[in-house]
Write a structure and sequence with these properties.
The structure holds two protein chains of two kinds. Chain A is an all-beta fold. Helix content of chain A is 0%, strand content 56%. In chain A, strand 4 and strand 5 form a beta hairpin. Chain A is globular. By secondary structure, chain B is mainly β. The radius of gyration of chain B is 13 Å and the shape is globular. Classes of the chains: A mainly beta, B mainly beta.
Chain lengths: 112, 116
C-alpha cells in the first residue's frame, strides 16, 4: 500500500518567516501534486512535479521533487496570512491512474 | 460559476436515515470522482464514474454506499442507514477525459455530512 506521510502535521508561524513542509513515501511516484485547501472549500491544485530533482517556483512557493521520486518538499518564503491553509500532497495510486493517494496534510497557520 | 458544484453544502441526518449528495461536474467534463475526508486527514478515494458507468469503486464501502452518474443530471452519492462514522466531508472532482497521471482534478467545495 502506498502511503504519503506529511510533516509537520501542524505549523504555526509569524508573518514574514520562512518554512518548509515535507511529503515522504517509501514508494516511487511517477508524479506528485500539491494542493492547498482552505476551510470550507475543496482542494485547489498548486503544482505538479514530474521529473526527479525537479524544482518549480510559484511566486513565494518553491516545490521540489526528490531525485528518487519518493519525496517532495514545499518551501514558502516570507509567509503571509493568506498562505494559511491545509497543504496536501498527492500522487497517482499504483496500478490506477484514476485514483490519487493523498497525504494527511500540513495545517499551516500564518499569524499577522 | 463554471466550477464543480456540490449540494447541499451541509447535511445533517439522524442515524438510520439516508443521505443523498449531489455533484454537477464542470461544463464539458464527463468524468466524476468522489473522495471522503475525515477531520484532520487527507482525502480518500471512493469511486470513479463516467456517464452511466461505474469505472472504479474500489474505495467504496461494500454496504450502504452507492453512486451513480446518469445520462442527464448530476452524479449522486447515496448513503443508506447512515451511522455516526459516516460523518465527514465528501468531495466531488471532475475531469474532461479519463484522468492521466499528471492531469489536475477540479474539486467542488464539498458536502459536510453530520450524523447525529
Amino acid at each position: 500500500t502506498q502511503l504519503l506521510e506529511q510533516s509537520p502535521q501542524f505549523l504555526s508561524i509569524q508573518e514574514g518567516e520562512n518554512l518548509t513542509v515535507y511529503c515522504n513515501s517509501s514508494s516511487v511516484f511517477s508524479s506528485l501534486q500539491w494542493y492547498r485547501q482552505e476551510p470550507g472549500e475543496g482542494p485547489v491544485l498548486l503544482v505538479t512535479v514530474v521529473t526527479g530533482g525537479e524544482v518549480k517556483k510559484l511566486k513565494r512557493l518553491t516545490f521540489q521533487f526528490g531525485d528518487a521520486r519518493k519525496d517532495s518538499s514545499l518551501h514558502i518564503t516570507a509567509a503571509q496570512p493568506g498562505d494559511t491553509g491545509l497543504y496536501l500532497c498527492a500522487g497517482p495510486t499504483s496500478g490506477s491512474a484514476r485514483q490519487l493517494t493523498f497525504g494527511s496534510g500540513t495545517q499551516l497557520t500564518v499569524l499577522p | 460559476n463554471a466550477g464543480v458544484m456540490q449540494n447541499p453544502r451541509h447535511l445533517v441526518r439522524r442515524r438510520g436515515q439516508e443521505a443523498r449528495l449531489r455533484c454537477s461536474p464542470m461544463k464539458g467534463h464527463s468524468h466524476v470522482y468522489w473522495y471522503r475526508q475525515l477531520p484532520e486527514e487527507g482525502l480518500k478515494f471512493m469511486v470513479y464514474l463516467q456517464k452511466e458507468n461505474i469505472i472504479d469503486e474500489s474505495g467504496m464501502p461494500k454496504e450502504r454506499f452507492s453512486a451513480e452518474f446518469p445520462k442527464e443530471g448530476p452524479s449522486i452519492l447515496r448513503i443508506q442507514q447512515v451511522v455516526r462514522g459516516d460523518s465527514a466531508a465528501y468531495f466531488c472532482a471532475s475531469s474532461p477525459l479519463r484522468r492521466q497521471d499528471n492531469s489536475p482534478l477540479h474539486f467542488g467545495n464539498g458536502t459536510r455530512l453530520t450524523v447525529t
